[in-house]
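input
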Amino acid sequence: MKKTMLQQIADSLSLSRVTVWKVLNNRPGVAPETAQRVLEAVRKAQQGNTPGSSGSVSLDPDIKSITLVAARANSATFWTQIVDQIASDLLLQKIRFNYVPIDALQIPLSEISDILSPNKTDGKIVLNVYDEKIISILSRINLPKVFFDTLPGYTVNDLNGDLILLDGEYAVGTITNDLIYKGCRRIGFIGDIHYARTNFMRWKGFTDAMENNSLALENRFCLTKINSYRDDISAFLNGLDEMPDAFVCVNDYVAFLVLNILNDYRLSDTGKPILTGYDDSREFLLDQHGITTVHVKNKLLGKKLVNQLLFRIENPEADFEEIVIIPKVVFRTQAFKKD
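output
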């Protein structure tokens, strides 16, 4: 597997990828001499001399810098892999990468427009941002932009830019149909469907599959509004007087939480509900528990975001695009599958 440019530079200097990231984003905590070594390595990389690279890459004179606006992007491997790939691709193309972790920096709403003004950046990628006020500001800034996911109900016209989504209707519908084929009849859903449009798409895939199979949707087995994941899910599960045959979880993190909470219930193997997830996040080790999921190719997603923004910058008059990526379902069999 080809390493990202950030990792190549880190390896060449015997540093961590985090240290390289700090230098490139002017963050504290790096010794001056170390920062100088990193900057020199980046300069050589932009000349095509990074270890493992195959030569220089021409610079598009019309592209100077791209800004990534992200929230909680360092909270999970799923997001950091996308950020790393975006940084790597832009470095390869000699495009300056500006990273604005909007929540970590606690940027006042009044300053967002100034930070992202057209005289400071040529375009922006918006990642994992679901705050309505922030999205409203970002959509009004007259810059080429690509969003990865957004709030439920929002369209490209609301965002004034392109939108890339991960399919949920087909994938989760397929998962739900598989559970029904295996004999599950009472199936619940756990995930905040008001948080993100992709979450709502997964809920729709679930409910459509239940309806198409003439199965009742039992609201008591569904948790669709979540504020504090661990607390709310624990309270929800503790409030059930019986378990359904299966829970369709909105992502692997939720499936991981449900799995660990249920492990404390001392249920028999046949009494445990089947769980499914989404993302195929290796950090949760759900493959060791046979939990079906949906495999998202994070690095290719990062490339897609970069390529779409470059297209948008080069073709500002093109109609806005909503792009739905269809990832593959990874079917697994849990040891405590229902009889």
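quick obs: Confidence is low (pLDDT under 50) at residues 49-59.
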